Task: inverse folding
């Protein structure tokens, strides 16, 4: 019998529907894989019973001849940023340790309605703030990948590091991610999987622990472009409970997947050829250009002149929104309370937040508080929001000349854990290629391009215009078909 | 622009995060490094640019003005609201004494 943990979303769904195996067999295989991969620390809590119950419901529905959902029988990992009713939801923080939501996030509910089950809640950078999954209160996630040259533990990327590690290690066929400045695409690139951040507003933010609300978007992480399309269709859709939810029908992206790019133009942004970018990354970018030409696309040189200002603008906007969003953690309504002897209300707030937030979270709250404070607001926050307008205009202009943009996802391959921990700025630079699309609210995807000379995955990024997920997925498919990426990490855990 | 240790301490107080001397020692240089780096935004001429208000242009919706328009977020949820409170008492959130 086939090893069920090697199968992706579509193969599992179709296999269950055809009766090749039962959903319960699939859930049991992945539950065992999760239990056997504790060393990766990808999950904060495992929920094998949830996966089994969902699988049994699918098997029963199939037995009764009922229609099966588009994710029927597929057990997935849920990033621990999505509120799941009755299942601890922490955002990988101490301040939310033990928090059991009384409601289900819209995105997770849609996935359960589509027939998916939950293997567990996936580890992440604390409040999704980080690029290496080293800021979690529940410990680092270890990438399943190893460099040929060393045995050092590597970063799975962040913030969706539990998601990327689990999907690449075959302990989950797919997982949810969230992307504020690159948190789906960068970890996908580091681990040789696919991940798409849709247009801002496609997926409801209701029930997702908020980091920077004008940037946060959920999306799928899986091992193929088609699996991402299937799962994104299940996750997306209008939700009246999210004031920025797009009131648009969800297109049938899967049915319209088409890798024939004849007549399409692909833009290559010259400003992304930054000094200090890894030679092998640049080589993979050139390879990606050749693949898209082979698929029939015409390649055009484009300019995104404000690219270099995207990252500093992001590190004003995102912390500003975070400082405001995270004001809710006060030790009164939910989560941790630290009440020193004889302390009053204000002392309780300060003690609770000191004990409950990690260093990176505190750093960003302080930066955000500073840039929003009287006297500095215009110089920092207003200026950053003006630069954000310019960045979106850059993209608007570029999409007058091309359908999609091709760029690297990250400036380097994965790095050893601990390498950048003492230098926040070096860590932030990981997102230099992913942040511009986030600031402009655009759909963007990472697909595996190949391995570097150390045997580590490299990703290519496709960015599309607003609502242009189909063009992004199609270009991703064209790359996927030509890259023929089948490498997977050798099991050491 | 760089900030002093006293200014960082004041920002931490505004953000309601207690920071002892060691935490401040650690934070001040990091804070200044990040500020120095974001200063480069000052180079951009934005004199004729409007700050972004919405990344995707949308009309703000109004819900129907009725009680419990969405039963999930409407009223009658006291116990669910209090379920995760660290110190719920008598159907309320408990806090330390705030008046003498």
Result:
């Amino acid at each position: 019998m086939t090893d069920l943990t090697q199968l992706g979303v579509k193969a599992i769904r179709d296999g269950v529907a055809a009766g090749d195996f039962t959903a319960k067999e699939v859930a049991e295989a992945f539950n065992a894989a999760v239990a056997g991969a504790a060393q990766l620390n990808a999950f904060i809590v495992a929920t094998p019973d949830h996966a089994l119950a969902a699988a049994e419901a699918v098997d029963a529905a199939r037995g009764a001849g009922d229609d099966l959902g588009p994710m029927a029988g597929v057990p997935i990992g849920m990033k621990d940023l999505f509120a799941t009713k009755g299942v601890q939801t922490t955002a990988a923080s101490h301040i939310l340790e033990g928090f059991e939501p009384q409601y289900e996030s819209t995105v997770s509910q849609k996935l359960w309605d589509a027939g998916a089950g939950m293997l567990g809640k996936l580890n992440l950078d604390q409040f999704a703030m980080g690029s290496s999954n080293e800021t979690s209160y529940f410990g680092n996630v270890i990438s399943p990948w190893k460099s040929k040259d060393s045995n050092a533990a590597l970063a799975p990327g962040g913030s969706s590091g539990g998601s990327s590690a689990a999907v690449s290690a075959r302990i989950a066929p797919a997982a949810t991610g969230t992307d504020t400045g690159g948190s789906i695409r960068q970890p996908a690139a580091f681990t040789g999987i696919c991940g798409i951040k849709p247009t801002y507003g496609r997926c409801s933010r209701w029930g997702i622990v908020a980091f920077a609300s004008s940037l946060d978007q959920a999306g799928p992480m899986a091992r193929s472009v088609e699996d991402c399309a299937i799962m994104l269709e299940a996750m997306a859709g209008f939700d009246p409970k999210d004031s920025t939810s797009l009131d648009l029908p969800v297109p049938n992206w899967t049915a319209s997947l088409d890798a024939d790019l004849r007549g399409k133009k692909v833009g290559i942004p010259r400003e992304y050829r930054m000094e200090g970018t890894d030679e092998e990354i640049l080589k993979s970018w050139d390879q990606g250009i050749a693949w898209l030409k082979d698929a029939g696309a015409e390649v055009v040189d484009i300019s995104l002149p404000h690219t270099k200002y995207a990252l500093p603008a992001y590190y004003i906007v995102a912390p500003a929104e975070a400082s405001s969003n995270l004001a809710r953690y006060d030790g009164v309504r939910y989560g941790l309370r630290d009440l020193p002897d004889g302390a009053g209300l204000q002392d309780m707030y300060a003690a609770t937040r000191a004990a409950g937030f990690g260093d990176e979270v505190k750093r960003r709250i302080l930066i955000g508080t500073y840039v929003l404070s009287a006297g500095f607001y215009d110089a920092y926050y207003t200026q950053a929001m003006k630069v954000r307008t310019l960045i979106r205009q850059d993209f608007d202009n570029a999409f007058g000349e091309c359908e999609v943009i091709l760029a690297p996802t990250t400036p380097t391959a994965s790095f050893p854990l601990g390498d950048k921990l003492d230098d926040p700025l070096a860590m932030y630079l990981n997102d230099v290629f992913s942040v511009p699309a986030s600031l402009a609210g655009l759909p963007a995807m990472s697909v595996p391009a190949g391995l570097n000379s150390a045997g580590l995955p490299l990703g290519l990024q496709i960015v599309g215009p607003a609502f242009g997920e189909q063009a992004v997925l199609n270009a991703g498919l064209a790359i996927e078909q030509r890259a023929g990426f089948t490498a997977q990490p050798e099991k050491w855990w | 622009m760089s900030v002093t240790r006293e200014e960082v301490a004041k920002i931490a107080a505004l953000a309601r995060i207690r920071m002892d001397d060691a935490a401040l020692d650690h934070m001040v240089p990091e804070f200044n490094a990040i500020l120095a780096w974001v200063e480069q935004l000052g180079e951009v001429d934005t004199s004729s640019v409007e700050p972004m208000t919405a990344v995707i242009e949308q009309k703000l919706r109004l819900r129907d003005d009725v009680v419990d328009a969405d039963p999930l977020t409407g009223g009658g949820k006291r116990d669910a609201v209090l379920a995760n409170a660290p110190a719920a008492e008598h159907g309320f959130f408990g806090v330390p004494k705030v008046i003498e």
User: Anything to note?
Assistant: Chain A has a mean pLDDT of 97. Chain A touches chain B through 73 residues (CB under 8 Å). The first helix of chain A runs from residue 9 to 18. The CA atoms of residues 451 and 457 of chain A lie 4 Å apart.
